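Project standup — Tuesday

K.O.: blocked on the structure for the chain from last sprint. Re-posting the sequence here as requested.
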Amino acid sequence: MAVTRSKILSLEELAAVIAEHKTNSRRVVQCHGIFDLIHPGHIRHFEQAKQEGDVLVVTLTPDRYVNKGPGRPVFNELLRSETIAALACVDHVAVNDWPTAVETIHLLKPDVYVKGEEYETAETDLTGMIFEEERAILEEGGRLHFTHDLTFSSSHLLNAHFDVFTPEASAFLNTFRQRYSADDVIDLLNSFQALKVLVVGDVIVDEYVFCRAYGMASKSTSIAAQLQYEEHHAGGAMAVANHLAGFCAEVDLVTCLGALDSREDWIRAHLKPNVAATFHLRPDAPTTVKRRYVSDFPFTKMFEVAQFTDEALPEDVEAAVERDLAARAEAADVVVVVDFGHGFLGPEAIETIAGAARFLALNTQTNAINLGYNPVTRYPRADYVCIDAEEAHLAYGDRKAPIEVVVAALAPRLGAPVFAITRGRHGSIVRARDGETASVPIFSREVVDTIGAGDSFLALTAPCAKLGCPPELIGFVGNAVGALAVRVVGNKESVEPIPLYKFISTLLK
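H.V.: unblocked you, prediction finished:
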């Protein structure tokens, strides 16, 4: 073990050792990857790489940058380092400091950079980084080499032989893989680029105030806490627009801000460049801000303070909103409405959207402020409805009814050909017009924060519904997106194509 651990160096130490090897005219070969489960393919890859020089160094993607979805890496960077260092053909191991190998190549300056044959066809590399890595090694005077031998998939082996997923998820994925490949799903998501999407709804500025909670105050029944730091996230309709903007070339946003505290500059700065926003300004209120006080470790919400109004819009503002919606809804391929019940969308605006939208994807949200007063049945029609189980039961009027009964009753009431219910740890249910229903389990048990997960599910499944995807495919995409979304605090990060594509590829191997 001492010999094995002596091979593991920091990047700075490794750079110095490589410089010394080069002084002694020894050719240095570098391999780089995640190597989450070492298998015969990896060993033969390393052995072939060693034949290209005198010294073989292996650098590893650190845990924090492994974008293969929840539960990965299965083995942390220390265990991965020790496993690789135990191989006789490997001389040195280091954990990378960056998400890619480009900076590492420039730091280490190897003579040969070696990848497996699956990267030889650069177009199949989801990240596109093989182009950048080749450029880096050439700039350092080295060369790129590909090994050719037995290939295995760590993801496939882990999925097949380790309890990475729940039994329900494993059973679903085993069946789903027989109908769809990762390329099928990724091609579907890439096709979203051609859609013109309009997002309508309330902008919310989500503020997280992280505190160190000490317990009950000594002289009152209140919690004593020390302020640590704050984060501000783009929530509500902003979050939905940003999710979509990673996959659709053209996204419009129509929303309302409050003149008393508009936050307009901050909001514009936190929308993606391809989101074209139209802000209607109401003079009688502030922009909605939800400030959540949370314990920083463990992550636990303590309480929430909201700055908002749920009063109807002034008549002149409401008239301007209706004119804007009528014109923009007709021009959009998909209209995504995310209604938080904060007064922006009144009966007239709802009628305008329902009448003008060619394809209407609808989400009405229930929260502590509007409980029972913002049901999806406020809308006369929708082509796709996406709500959570509590919202569905409220709209149906029976909290104990089986969810299948609730969906079967609500879908025809709204004339919705596709109806999706998100169910937290129970996954999701998606129903088509013909009654075909798919129950899709969750793909991760790692949950940091559930806030924003429903927004991401809605954003990426609305185009699926527009394109006529079957229920199981819609549920698969939604749950894959949701599994990534619950790993971050609120809407701190949008769901982006490359991490999602990697996760989908991992799920379907």
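K.O.: great, moving the ticket to review. The chain has two domains: 2-161, 185-204+235-288+307-507. The two ends are 34 Å apart (CA to CA).
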